[in-house]
Amino acid sequence: MKRATLARCTAAAAASVVALGTLGAVPALAADPAPGFARTATYPVYLNVPAGVDPADETVAEISAASPDGKTVVYTDALGKRIGFLDVTDPGSPVGLGTVSLAELGHEDDQPTSVSIVGGHVLVVIDETGGAFTAPKGRLDVLRLSDRERVASIDLGGQPDSIAISPDGTYAAIAIENQRDEDIEVDGVEGGMPQAPGGFVQVVKLTPSKPSNWKARPVAFDTRAAQAILADAGLYGATDPEPEYVAFSSEGELAVTLQENNGIALIDVRTGRLTGAFSTGTVTADGFDTDDDKVISATDSLVDVPREPDSLGWVGANLVATANEGDLFGGTRGWSIFDVRTGEVVWDAGSSFEQLAVAHGVYNDGRADNKGPEPEGLAIAEFGGTTYAFVASERSNIVVVYDLTDPTSPEFVQTLFATNGPEGILPIPSRDLLVVSSEEDEASAGVRAAVNVYAFGSDVASRTSIVSDSVDGEAIGWLALSALSANPADPGTIFAASDNALKPSTIFTVDVTGAQARITDSLVVTHGGSPANLDVEGLFARPQGGYWLASEGAAGAANSLVRTDAAGAVVETVALPAEITAHIGKWGLEGVTATTDASGAEVVYVAVQRPLWSDPAGAAEPIDGDGVTRIGRYDVASGAWTWFGYQLEATSAAGDWLGLSEITAVDADTLAVIERDKLNGPRAAIKRVSTVEVGGVTGVTGLGAPGGLPVLEKTVAIDVLPELQSIDGWTQEKLEGLTIGGDGQVYAVTDNDGLNDATGETVFLRLGSAAERF
């Protein structure tokens, strides 16, 4: 059967698959098995910028390649118009080796889009278009790896995207995308197609070995024969193909994703001809969250949504896997495996990829209405005799690992946390390493683009510290754990709560008996019979039943102490004294705890994050002295409030401040509090648990007389920073939850801020015995 006829027969089949529920089944979320991958280092690439470049300037690490010995990694930095070099000889301590400016080699608008290494040469493809959609241009620069001198520059005749090298090192294939103008309307579609000029693929024969002799040979997509193949495949905008990603099979066959066209093309690089194409079809499946509303609820469906694949990789000689990022019309929030000989879908993730993001607390609800987790990067590689797929979520900042022993039924292995926007997935099997480069850089928030390194091995500890269970096939949705509390009825569980990054306000039950903490249940807080939307920053489960909640609020007067019954219904709201809230800005209540004596008298303590200010709305001075914030004591029986001072540490970092994030009772007279700075990554400095003694100390009522506030003496009990750094990731800013469980162990957790100005990783910490720590 001719390829064009085959494509025509299978396009409809590809479009109709995945109505089958089994294809989208949520993988079992058992404890991570060994062998697996463990993160060894996170290298922020701003540390590798040239002298004279402000480290605060945004920089990226988009696509990477490794030297033949696997000890040097080269990454593209499109924002910096350069490529960077890293020494990963020690996977636990990458060393920056500097950069090469591509703008200095060409033009100020030049941007590297991809990179490969062949022998002793670095091949970097460069977009020279500078925004001129109708006159795209680009080049391939060849640099010696040893001294980084350019030894050849080849005109590509269009705007390049990705590059791949054949297994035998004979050919380089480059996708020439010739990207469309997204602001132009075509047939009623903004950014629609066709928009001339169409794209194609350039093939460079890498022999003879002297790069100055290399020539680029185009594989045209606009010939009559090629156009017939694309049209017969039923591709959208077939006259304007936009190659996105190229990958060689082990036999040297080239597959090309045509993302906006929703298809895959096949090329014989030896003859330079397009040999076939097929549509990647559409998905109809249930179990998605498509509303940007801070509610994680997988009750929505995708109906006939085009996959629009981005990256791809071969699984053997006849199957290809694609990450279905989407663009114009689609994005199916997962990945698929196709038989390239028939065009049929042999497996599709359905909603399971998105559900994994939910289960790991990294579902970016702000993107729920726009491609969800947005799978973009994908790679296939063999480690330890097993073939794995690595699929990266651009918006959830994770790489999901699957076992492809049976490619018709991939098995979930583990989730790897990365920095923001993981795109370049670089397996280095010869060294048992996986390198992930992340393209998003939020310098203003201190969350930087980085190269993440992971090692494969049989002795791998649990890689995910907390994950949620699935109920009826749907993972329990959670985000931004801002508070912890012991469960007075069960020493094997604790409670956690999300802040206003998640709606409605929810209390979670967390099983801490295993190596991996597991969210097993959730309880919605209600007020007047309706779901409540509080900013829960503190949580305490009362032995008498029900909960105390500390709700921060956007302004001083909105800060309140809330009591619920065991079912989560609000039964009492306790306002803070007006003379206190008049001096609280947006940094208010951050924790709550309580004690009950033998007579049954209950006392509640709250922590105020930052000092009281003379004028919270404008230029302000701290009322109680520099860096002095407050701990409040509420006598439940009398309704009286009294206040104590807490001296925060000072910081020398510009833009930083210190504050309290949690409070928990060690005993009737001793309180433990979290004190932290607002720095993250390499700049993180203060993440501590300190204790203060309140027994025998008389607090003040209201503001108190000038100088009358008793400042409690504090003792540092636990320096948590080394614990946060020990996982070799991006050190998290918001250490926010702390409790002593019924088992006598100390637990802490970071708040992932709902992935807003954060990597999204939640770190659940086990800090040892309270008897030893306090």
Describe what this molecule looks like in 3D.
This protein has 774 residues and is mainly beta. The protein has 2 domains: 414 residues, Methylamine Dehydrogenase, Chain H; 308 residues, Neuraminidase (6 Propeller). The protein is built from 7 helices and 56 strands. Strands 33-39-38-37-36 form a 5-stranded mixed sheet, with no helix packed on it. The protein has a 4-stranded antiparallel sheet with strand order 1-32-31-30, with no helix packed on it. A hairpin with a 4-residue loop joins strand 54 and strand 55. The longest helix is centred in the N-terminal third of the chain and has 14 residues. It is elongated, with a radius of gyration of 28 Å. Keywords: Signal. This is Esterase-like activity of phytase family protein. Pfam families: choice_anch_I, Phytase-like.
- Alpha-carbon Rg, integer: 28 Å
Tell how many strands the DSSP assignment holds: 56
Mass-distribution shape: elongated
Level-1 CATH class name of the largest domain: Mainly Beta
Distance between the termini: 76 Å
Helix content: under 10%
Count of folded domains: 2
Provide the structure class.
mainly beta
Largest sheet: 5 strands, mixed
Helical segment tally? 7
Q: Which CATH-level-2 architecture of the largest domain?
A: 7 Propeller
CATH superfamily of the largest domain: YVTN repeat-like/Quinoprotein amine dehydrogenase
Assembly form of the protein: single chain
Overall average residue pLDDT:
93
- CATH fold label of the largest domain: Methylamine Dehydrogenase, Chain H
Strand arrangement across the biggest beta sheet: 33-39-38-37-36
Low-confidence stretches: 1-32
Strand fraction equals 35-45%
